[in-house]
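pinned: reference chain
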Amino acid sequence: MIYNPTQPSAVDLSEKFADFLQYDTVAHMKEAFSLMGRRFVGQPRKVQVAHGIARYVREHPLDVLHKCNADTLMYINKMIEMGKGSFITIGEPRVNTLQIQKMELVLTYFNKSNHTTELYMLDELHDIFEPHIAEAYMHPSDVLRQDMAKGIQSWADEIAAADDKEAKTREILLDAMLIYVNNECDSIMNAHAKQLHAKYPAEMNDKELARFEAALQTQKADLQKAVDGLSRAIEEATPAIADKRHQELSLVKKQADDVFFSIAHLQKMIDGCRRSKTDLEGYLSDLLAEADEASKSL
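pinned: its structure tokens
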């Protein structure tokens, strides 16, 4: 449903899913249930429809996820990665056309200041879907396979219709790598937000710091692999294609640089936490030097 509070903070994510559903119409709720592969018989009352959907989602979460297309599954996964109380932002404000909106699985808030839409998930739905999201990806449903097949077929049709098939193939490869790097950046930043929401490095013991550091090293290696792949795709694309994607390439490269900076900053925090236990004076000296350097750049 569309949620229009005066402030995003007005969204109450602790509300029960059944109660949340009742804000919408019976027709919309029935449409949501049909997208889950179910339907109501007879003329149930509004409260019965809402509680019936909520009960089905609680009892059959994997079946619900298996009815999701690729975009909906991606949105759910991102919101779970971000953790409760968070939201994800999409650039398209007409979210009523999205499956996740039609399935009544999110609250949406249109941010007038930057013309984007924020998607929120109720805490109850976080708890319901989190144990099953990995399974939904590991064993794709027919819906997801068909959705992926449509995307591949679309690319194949573009290549077949192109005068220069090799150039079109390279263009599609470049687009795919742009999506790959963007998704890798989103995944890493979501993982950072989830970790810091749970516990900061200063609150971690030695084993937790070691695990966090190992995770950061893996993230850095994975992102570097994605960026290297994008660089190769740029080199193989024609200059005209690269120029056509100049703005998108600049944005993705900046996004990757920001993520690399975030990883480096968190690694420095981990190192600082370790040093502070044995070298408090040296750690404070480093912090003062860093603050002084930051003030000079202002």
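why pinned: The first helix runs from residue 17 to 21. The first strand starts at residue 87 and ends at 90.
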